[in-house]
From TrEMBL, chain A:
Any one GO biological process: protein maturation
Protein name: Hydrogenase maturation protein HypD
Stored NCBIfam families: hypD (TIGR00075)
Origin species: Kribbella amoyensis
GO MF term (any one): carbon monoxide binding
Keyword rRNA-binding: no
InterPro entries referenced in this protein's UniProt entry, alphabetically: Hyd_form_HypD, HypD_1, HypD_2_sf
TrEMBL record, chain B:
Family recorded in the similarity comment: Belongs to the HypE family.
Upper classification of the organism: Bacteria, Bacillati, Actinomycetota, Actinomycetes, Propionibacteriales
Residue stretches making up the PurM-like N-terminal domain: 66-177
The protein's name in its UniProt record: Hydrogenase maturation carbamoyl dehydratase HypE
Every PurM-like C-terminal domain range: 190-335
Pfam families per record: AIRS, AIRS_C
């Protein structure tokens, strides 16, 4: 398959694995920032192929996982209101808020719809002028530009019944927060290629220098990951800490100027709470004053949300790379994809879900859920 | 005066017994039906096991196979029913009419039975154009003719506008099981070979391409087809087929998990041997879906004794619906009840039953 098979070739993978083994002389710990990369690593078993001691730490880059509980509860509250069509990408529907999720709101009569683009939600607003259409705009720098574009279009076309519930987050402040943690074990980063395809690499040299960590911009296919690991290990062995772009087919140093201009126009930087981690200064975006009318939080005035987070879930430590998913006592027992205590077990890109789905044989908490025939 | 028939008091529902569930989540946190209960995954399974089976308890149902097999009047019959709520009603490669016939014909075929007679129930929503109903009926008749089955009885109901989704169709069917044939998931055993009859994931992606308005470069056409002819060709080679399953909702992964759990055997797959069309692989990559979980309508999984594998595979490849048949794995003694695949790089991963429906990821 053009542009995919080339980056999954087992022979080339074997070659890269051999190079990693030949290069690594000491134990190293590196973090893949993005949940999509975690998924690739665990799904293809890449971490099983690495030398003993070379360890992947799974980072906070799953947008579903880090969306704060308060925002999810606000989404549930808005989606419950009569006259609202609440639109979301599919994987947000199963994320638990304080005791319920969007699936439940839907089953109780809420008009919750899965869309594949925020522009689909805008079209729904045009087709339903008597309804309020809200799009759940979450994610990193990757999903922020299309969401910004949608609000820009709503203003330009004068569509008053559309609004965006915004919870966008930015990667560089999260890297900084991880490095400042006293428990930090990260010695190098595989930066998220899709994020850099939008933002470029300008934000990273300062981080690499300040914390003396190599940062290698990495793609999402198996060979991308292996190439990123090889380059990071090579730097670590040489005592270097520079920014390298190992995803040149998608990432230019300057990023995507049009997307950045759209972000600049529509959003402004804000402090943002990350689920499981807490407040990270200037780590998020919200709609700027000029677009306040299209801000769902402003329009629906959802206030006084009392959140209720699990007291035993350790997804915050998982998101910061301090523990592996199966090191949480609830993993695979109290906490499964069917009964998730935290978002890292819900999202398809969450580290806990990836371990549960693919690694139950290798982890101590092997739990089955005893499904039976569906009868068709 | 006519005495009213005493009815149960609807204000006092008899709650199903959820105690002993392996997972505390399903209906505790979902007191209402959610879409996942119909997705063919864990939630569907638990609804059937804990709500329906206790209500109808009997030994014929207990096997939870695609069709019930029993003796009646000296004949060994298979009996099955299926309801079709597909949206859109017409899609590349078929319609709800084709599905309604092939779904039940295939459920019967998975017990080794040749479908003989079908019933057909239409639930129509007020306002649907008669020309639409006519097209569906015509497709249904044509599909029945292709499968060699007679639609012998039917029923029609109309519901108020807004209380349906255009057209729902239910079919039930009966067929005769060949003598000596004993096909059921419990018969899978370590050493058995797992075969798939062709390219996987096609129907699900075809439906998604029209339902969600997503184009994948080339049109993906549903594989909807009756599998009774293919099964007959396989039975001509050996009557000792251990398991047959059509991997519809929930895809190949769900069907294999059901077999592994029912038989208490492990199943090892080899990822590189899975036949996946390029368009399906591309679409799945784009949407963040796994082809192993995408629905099929004209494919079957067969579990056969190792000594029969070559002959069965050859018979399948000689049939028009089995040309791309491939051995994809084997049953093993390790990890009973679990399906594990060997990745292209030589690592391994568990292939689990999905919870409800697969959800496209955010980015």
């Amino acid at each position: 398959m053009k542009y995919l098979d080339e980056f999954s070739d087992p022979e080339l993978a074997k070659h890269l694995v051999g190079q990693i083994h030949a290069t690594a002389t000491k134990p190293w710990s590196m973090m893949e920032v993005c949940g999509g990369q975690t998924h690739t690593i665990v799904r293809h078993g890449i971490d099983q192929l690495l030398p003993d001691g070379v360890q992947m730490i799974h980072g906070p880059g799953c947008p579903v996982c880090v969306t704060p509980l308060e925002i999810i509860d606000k989404a549930l509250e808005i989606a419950s209101q009569p006259g609202v069509i609440f639109c979301s990408f599919g994987d947000m529907l199963r994320v638990p808020g304080s005791g319920r999720d969007l699936f439940r709101i839907k089953s109780e009569g809420g008009d919750v719809r899965v869309v594949y683009s925020p522009l689909d939600a805008l079209r729904l607003a045009q087709e339903n002028p008597d309804r309020q259409v809200v799009f759940f705009g979450i994610g990193f720098e990757t999903t922020a530009p299309p969401n910004a574009m949608t609000v820009y279009q709503a203003k330009k076309l004068g569509i008053p019944n559309f609004s965006l519930l915004v919870s966008h987050v930015r990667v560089p402040p999260a890297i900084e927060a991880i490095m400042q943690s006293p428990d930090c074990r990260v010695q190098g980063f595989l930066a998220a290629g899709h994020v850099c395809s939008v933002m470029g690499t300008a934000e990273y040299p300062e981080l690499a220098d300040r914390y003396r960590v190599p940062i290698v911009v990495t793609g999402f296919e198996p060979l991308d990951i292996l190439a990123g690991i090889l380059r990071t290990v090579t730097q670590l062995e040489r005592g270097e800490h520079v920014v390298e772009n190992a995803y040149q087919r998608a990432v230019r140093d300057e990023g995507n100027p049009a997307a950045k201009a759209m972000l600049e126009d529509v959003f402004e930087t804000t402090d943002r709470s990350w689920r499981g981690i807490g407040m990270i200064p200037r780590s998020g975006w919200r709609l700027s004053e000029r677009y306040r009318e299209w801000d769902a939080e402003y329009r629906f005035q959802v206030r006084d949300i009392a959140t209720e987070e699990s007291t035993i879930c350790r997804s915050g430590e998982v998101l910061q790379g301090q523990i592996k998913p199966h090191e949480c006592a609830a993993f695979g027992t109290l906490c499964t994809p069917r009964n998730p205590l935290g978002a890292t077990m819900v999202s398809s890109e969450g580290a806990c879900a990836a371990y549960y789905l693919y690694r139950r044989l290798q982890t101590p908490a092997a739990a089955g859920t005893g499904a039976v025939s569906s009868g068709d | 005066m006519i005495e009213p028939i005493p009815l149960p008091d609807p204000s006092v529902p008899d709650p199903p017994d959820f105690s002993g569930w392996t997972c505390p989540m399903p209906l505790r946190d979902h007191p209402n039906v959610v879409m996942g209960h119909g997705g063919g995954g864990q939630m569907s399974g638990e609804l059937i096991e804990h709500l329906f089976v206790p209500a109808f308890a009997n030994p014929v149902l207990a096997g939870l196979t695609d069709s019930a097999v029993f003796e009646l009047g000296g004949a060994r019959l298979a009996f099955s029913t299926d309801s079709f709520v597909v949206r859109p009603l017409f899609f590349p490669g078929g319609s709800i009419g084709d599905l309604a016939v092939n779904g039940t014909v295939n459920d019967l075929a998975m017990s080794g039975a040749q479908a003989a007679y079908l019933s057909c129930g239409f639930i129509l929503e007020e306002g649907v154009e008669l020309s639409v109903v006519g097209r569906i009926a015509k497709d249904l008749g044509t599909a029945a003719e292709r499968a060699g089955v007679i639609v012998a009885t039917g029923d029609t109901k109309v519901v108020d506008a807004g209380h349906g989704d255009g057209v729902f169709v239910n079919t039930a069917g009966v067929g005769l099981v060949r003598e000596g044939v004993d096909i059921r998931p419990q018969r899978a055993a370590p050493g058995d070979v797992v075969i798939v009859s062709g390219m996987i994931g096609v129907h699900g992606i075809a439906i998604m391409s029209v339902r969600e308005g997503i184009s994948f470069g080339t049109e993906v056409v549903s594989d909807c087809a009756p599998l009774n002819g293919l099964v007959a060709a396989m039975l001509d080679v050996t009557t000792d087929l251990h398991v047959l399953r059509d991997p519809t909702r929930g895809g190949v992964a769900t069907s294999l998990n059901e077999i592994a759990k029912a038989a208490g055997t492990g199943i090892d797959l080899v990822e590189r041997q899975l036949p996946i069309p390029e368009t399906v692989a591309n679409a799945c990559s784009f949407l963040g879906l796994d082809p192993l979980y995408v629905a099929n309508e004209g494919k079957l999984l067969a579990v056969v004794a190792p000594g029969d594998a070559d002959a069965v595979l050859a018979a399948m490849r000689a049939h028009p619906l089995g040309q791309d048949a491939a051995i994809i794995g084997e049953c093993v003694e390790d990890h009973p009840g679990l399906v594990v695949t060997r990745t292209a790089f030589g690592a391994t991963r568990v292939v689990d039953t999905p919870i409800g429906e697969q959800l496209p990821r955010i980015c």
